[in-house]
Design a protein that fits this description.
Elements: E1 6-11, E2 14-20, H1 28-33, E3 39-43, E4 50-51, E5 60-61, E6 82-86, E7 92-94, H2 95-98, E8 120-127, E9 134-140, E10 154-159, H3 162-166, E11 173-175, E12 185-190, E13 196-200, E14 225-229, E15 239-243, E16 248-253, E17 259-263, H4 271-276
Antiparallel strand pairs: 1-2, 1-3, 3-6, 4-5, 6-7, 8-9, 9-10, 10-11, 12-13, 13-14, 14-15, 16-17
């Protein structure tokens, strides 16, 4: 599945995943088709998909990789994307800009140019069952310069007034309360009981000494599996549903109430440990 463009059709109480396109913009054929329902999607600046090397330190993954790097730094997730809405009449709106996020959010200018300080990255939108709100992941902010060491995290945000947005009102976007702070929270979807299901790189058991978890294949930072919160209660009643050594991606609940997701399993003993026993000194690291 492609991480670069995800779209959903909003119609009554149904949510239909309609496409996954590598292109950052709709093709002319899609624009000409005039779909009957609004399309919610994200844009993302081009990122290197994956750079593999025989040594772990020379390997690089990004937010566009199949085994997605969950980190929110600008090396892993370039700034400049947005949450977008296309109406059936062809009107295209930048919802994050309307809500005050990203470059140019407080002006009438286009969200283009250097992303220093104010840039954002956005991914994985998902519409609630009753189509009243939509959840997505966003990394807010960017280094102001080479000396800026601020750590940025992917966090969950919601468009809280989706029906009003579809009627023409400006988008209202707020962070999901009670989610794990100072960790990267991604791939969110709505459960059937008011809870939010998502992936996070928070360590199992909350043990900071285990952060970050690294996958079994390339020893790159990875999420720790599926988590669930109830945003309406203090502390979120956080639950770790599935612990995955090499990450879980794209969870969603189907029409029968089943939770489906993609899980990466290497199904082999530690490749790097095997390599370390070869003449390559300490795997080059």
């Amino acid at each position: 599945m492609c991480h670069r463009g995800h779209g959903f059709c909003v119609q009554g109480c149904q949510v239909f995943k309609i496409f996954c396109a590598i292109s950052l913009a709709f093709s002319s054929s899609l624009l000409a088709s005039n779909p009957a329902n609004p399309l919610l999607y994200v844009t993302q600046v081009p990122m290197p998909d994956e750079i593999n090397n025989r040594t772990a330190s020379a390997t690089r993954l990004s937010c566009a990789s199949a085994i997605q790097n969950p980190l929110g730094d600008t090396r892993s997730a370039g700034r400049g994307g947005a949450l977008m809405l296309r109406m059936p009449n062809g009107t295209v709106r930048n919802l994050t800009k309307e809500a005050g996020f990203g470059l140019g959010a407080s002006s009438t200018g286009n969200a283009t140019g250097a992303q220093d300080g104010a840039g954002i990255a956005v991914q994985h939108p998902f519409v609630n069952w009753d189509a009243t709100r939509a959840i997505f992941s966003m990394a807010v902010g960017a280094p102001s310069g080479a000396a800026d060491t601020t750590i940025f995290y992917w966090q969950l945000y919601e468009v809280t007034n989706l029906p009003q947005v579809l009627a023409g009102a400006a988008a209202q976007i707020a962070a999901v309360p009670n989610q794990p702070a100072n960790y990267n929270n991604l791939h969110a979807c709505y459960g059937t009981n008011g809870r939010i299901i998502f992936t996070s790189d928070q360590p199992r058991g909350g043990l900071v000494s285990l952060y970050p978890q690294r996958d079994e294949y390339l020893l790159q930072p990875i999420n720790t599996g599926l988590w669930s919160i109830d945003p309406t209660v203090a502390g979120g009643n956080l639950r770790h549903l599935v612990h995955a050594p090499s990450g879980i991606f794209q969870p969603f609940v189907d029409h029968a109430g089943r939770l489906l997701f993609i899980q990466w399993d290497h199904l082999s003993r530690d490749v790097e440990a095997v390599t370390d026993r070869t003449p390559i000194p300490a795997n080059g690291d």
